[in-house]
Amino acid sequence: MPPKLETARLKHWLAWIIGLSAVFCSLVLARVDLDRMQMLALQRYGQQGAETVSQWRLMIENIQDLDDEQKLDQVNRFFNSVMRWRSDDEIWGKADYWATPLESMGRELGDCEDFSIAKYITLLLAGVDINKLRITYVKAQMGGPYSKIFDAHMVLAYYKQPNADPQILDNIIDEIRLGSQREDLKPVFGFNSQGLWIQGASTPSLQDPGARLSRWRNVLRRMAADGLGYMPTTE
Amino acid sequence: MSLFKQLWLAFICILTLVFGASFVVSSLSTKHYLEQQLFIKNSDNASALALSLSQQDADPVLLELTLAAQFDTGHYQKIELVDPEGKLLLRREDTDPITEAPQWFINLLPLEVSPGIAQIQQGWQQLGTLSLYSHSRFAYQELWKSSQQLALVFLAAILLSGLISSYLLSHILRPLGAVVSQAKAIGERRFITIEEPRTKEFRQVSRAMNTLSQRVQQALHKEAARLEKWRRDSQIDGVTSLLSREAFMQNLASLLENDNDNASGTLSLVRLEGLAELNQRFGHSTIDELLGDIGSAIRSMIGHRSDWQASRLNGSEFALIAPRTTDPESVATKLLNAISGALEARNMRKEVNLPCASTSYAYQESPSQLLTRLDSALITASREDSSTINVIQASNLPLLPVRDQISYWKNLLEQAFKEQKFSLDYYPVVDRERKLMHLEAPARLLITKDERLSAAVFLPWIKRLKMSAELDQHIIDLALKHIAVYNEALCINLSAGALIDPNFPLWLSTRLESTKEHSGNLWLELPEPAAFRHLEAFKRLTARVKVFGCKVGVEHVGHQLANIGQLHDLGLDYLKVDAFLIRDIDSNPANQTLLRTLCTVGHSIGLSVIAEGVRNLDEWHQLEELGIDGCTGPGVTKFSKLS
Fold first, then answer.
1. For position A21, what pLDDT does the model report?
2. Chain-chain contact of A189 with B51 (C-beta, under 8 angstroms)
């Protein structure tokens, strides 16, 4: 047996023992629990943060029966108005930090990926099909069609049909436009959380050490801790 | 099941449980670990592939080529590409069965790995969803190998632990064996003490039993000492510390009736002529001191020859019985030297004349005949020069030279063994209910059709010719055959010669084993002097035959009562009290007290007490009153035949 397995096994025995209880708790805790999120907002960010979360919850409830177009519009406007853009460095003192929706709403600040993640999750909660949503890395041309300034950016794309031209939710402009109309954006790679919630697990492989290594899965994991766990409407 | 086995089994069960559980946990955690690694690999590879495909302007051919290249050069089980409408665009799959691990193992521990899923897009256009499954055959190989190694290690560990635990258990439980055998011994009224084990609980138990044993031993020794004192008081002459006349005569009579090798030997008599004059010259007390000196000189001459008996018959006559000796002159010389030594020490040798007579005695001679013969010889001796020994023989005794006698007996006995001319005689021993306890079976030697020699006659020669063990084996054979036919208890006298014969114990075990069902009816007994002289050998022999249910006892008890205490840890069944203590018991209060105490002592260590040489009903009744458990002797034979 290779020696590297030994330490892994030791850790895993420990993880198994601690995990057994943790799994049991997370079965309960890691579901979508907006009350918990509300409580955490109050604890961490005070009245203002709790107020934002409360408004956010109200919005989700209100748009539940609307069609997708309207949901996109409401959610896009909500986050674009509540949060202001700051670089990760300014907010978190780190080069690249993916914040959970709670963190974003609590601080009312966010980087492009924080906007995208918050909108993505909110739309899922509002009942939008996960297969229609893609968080997409784009190369953005800043400052007009002739600008030579390009920046790494992230937006949320909504595909009404699989082959359709997607609608783009961006924090740079408030209006939702079709991908083909956004000549300033060049898509690089799109993804969603499909395939990460394995076999109906309550969180995206919470016990899996891989979850900590992947930035995307890491933020999903932290979200689960905030009260935004597995969303049964998503798949 | 023994405690050892139970503990060992429990130990092994726990070990198996522990190792089994950790085997399962370890296998599961390895499986889990491999699943995670495979899933991460799936995810990363899918993402990387999708990312690179998204960056190319991928036409279908390029897509297929890239995926095929990835599949062919990598370690994948399946790569699938599904377009946004759910139509399968491409699938590469490895369908070779997994041979790295047996199928049952794969079924037992299936690796459930989710595929890596990633989206491929071109510009804003979605091209499809990529699913990627890494091959699990290597993971199975690893899992199978590690499970095998683990199982081997655990098996070895269990075996090793089993060995260690059986060593440890035997170490821990060793004292228990000693404690159990002590308890068993006490149950059989063998009051042994053992070294206290170090284990606390065992130590407490064995300490309690040791204390019990020691108390019994102390009580026994005390009783034995008291018995000895009574014997002395009633049988010992106060002045010389030798036997009193009465006790000596009882002894002599019982010896002459003994149907064993004690029934022949020599009797010597020395008279101090001139003692009356000395008495007048030196005074009464000085002469008493002199007699005391003579007594102690004789006793130290007798020394360890416990069956020799000396007595001051009357004022000036000293007698010595030496059973089983054949040369009257040499015994008499010893006696004479002892006496004259004491006299010389007081410078009185010249004042007295020491006529001495000696004779051989034989089975069933009468004591009075014997003493008359010696008296007349003594008169002859005193007429002659002082300090000569007059050896006189009964007219019917063979006067052959010793060498001729030896060769005569040697032929006779060898012939007897060859032609199986030995037989047994049977005398009943009955219990208090007048029921038969066993038959005492002394040996007989058939000379002619009508003439049978009794044991008393040929036993001395058996002993002298060192045929004791052979004869005893022969007799035991006869006895066991008799038991097999008549199914009654039979008692055999063992000799000291057989006891110390190195081959005899083993022979006896084998013989008793071969007739296991009858062995319980065999009673074996040893004369008192032999029993105490070879106490350790006797103890070993007793333990050996007890296994087969034989009864073991000591016969002719009464001469070494002080030693009775030593019998506490032998596990004997009975004592047969010598006839000299039984004779005229109905009119001898001192012996009554002695016997009553002897019975009490015997009973306290689980011994039956049997009286030998009971001659009449008066003695018999008296003995029963004293608490005797059984009787034998001419009277018993006579009356039990009548009834």
1. 52
2. yes
Average pLDDT over residues B615-639: 90
The amino acid sitting at B642 is L
Query: B426 and B280 share a domain?
Result: no
- Among A133, A189, A199, which would you mutate to test the B interface (most chain B Cβ atoms within 10 Å of its Cβ)? A189
Give residues with Cβ within 8 angstroms of B50, minimum separation 6.
A189, B118, B119, B120, B130
In percent, the amount of chain B with pLDDT more than 70 equals 97
CATH code, domain with B346 = 3.30.70.270
Which of B36, B84, B123 minimises the CB distance to A209?
Answer: B36
Residues of A in contact with B119 (CB under 8 A): 134, 190-192
Nearest chain B Cα to A200, which residue?
A: B114
Give the closest of A13, A134, A136 to B25, CB-based.
A13
pLDDT at B523: 95
**Distance (Å, whole) CA A63 – CA A70:** 8
Identify from A9, A23, A180 which residue to disrupt to test chain B contact, counting B C-beta atoms within 10 A and taking the largest count: A9
Type of residue found at B464: R
Q: Is residue A75 in a domain?
A: yes
Residues B361 and B485 in one domain: no
pLDDT band at B430 (very low <50, low <70, confident <90, very high): very high
In-domain check, residue A13: no
| Residue B204 falls inside a structural domain | no
The enclosing domain of B529 has a CATH number of: 3.20.20.450
Q: Is residue A16 part of a domain?
A: no
- How distant is the Cα of A59 from the closest Cα of chain B, in angstroms? 29
Which residues in chain A are contacts of B125 at CB distance < 8 A? 163, 165
**Option in A165, A198, A209 nearest B124 (CB):** A165
Pick from B359, B392, B425: which residue ends a domain? B392
The pLDDT tens digits for A97-153 are 889 999 999 988 888 889 999 999 999 888 888 888 888 888 888 887 888 888 889
Band of the pLDDT at B320, cuts 50, 70, 90? very high
Q: How many domains does chain A have?
A: 1
**B35, B81, B124: which to substitute to probe chain A, counting the most A Cβ within 10 Å?**
B124
B350-353's contacts with Cβ under 8 Å and 24+ in sequence apart are B351/B274, B351/B277, B351/B278, B351/B281, B352/B272, B352/B273, B352/B274, B352/B275, B352/B278, B353/B272, B353/B273, B353/B274, B353/B382, B353/B386, B353/B387
Under 8 Å CB-to-CB from B30, ≥6 apart: which residues? A5, A9, B142, B143, B146, B147
- pLDDT, position A7: 59
Taking all residues of chain B, what is their mean pLDDT, rounded to a whole number? Answer: 86
Q: How far is CA B147 from CA A108, B19, B34, B141, B518, in A?
A: 53, 13, 13, 10, 62
Report which of A233, A229, A231, A226 is spatially closest to residue A105, judged by C-alpha positions: A226
Range of the domain at A81: 31-234
Q: What is the mean pLDDT of residues B162-181?
A: 86
Contacts of B30 in chain A (CB under 8 A): 5, 9
Residue B12 and residue B92 in one domain = yes
Could you say which of A12, A191, A199 has the minimum Cβ distance to residue B33?
A12
Residues B578, B461 share a domain = yes
Q: Per the CB < 8 Å rule, is A187 touching B123?
A: yes
Q: Which domain holds residue B367?
A: 242-392
Q: CA-CA distance, B508 to B346, in Å (whole number)?
A: 55
Average pLDDT over residues B447-457: 82
Q: What is the pLDDT averaged over residues A217-230?
A: 81
Q: Is residue B583 part of a domain?
A: yes
Q: For residue B272, is it within any domain?
A: yes
* CATH assignment of the domain containing A52: 3.10.620.30
Per-residue pLDDT, B612 = 92
B305 inside domain: yes
pLDDT of residue B533: 87
If asked whether residues B494 and B559 sit together in one domain, one would say: yes
Asked if A9 has any chain B CB less than 8 Å from its own CB, the reply is yes
- The per-residue pLDDT for range B548-598, each reduced to its tens digit, is 999 999 999 988 888 888 888 888 999 999 988 898 899 888 889 889 988
Number of structural domains chain B divides into: 3
The B residues from 28 to 57 touching A (CB cutoff 8 Å) are: 29-30, 32-33, 36, 39-40, 43, 47, 50-51, 54-55
Residue B75 three-state SS: coil
B422 pLDDT more than 60 = yes
ipTM greater than 0.90, yes or no?
no
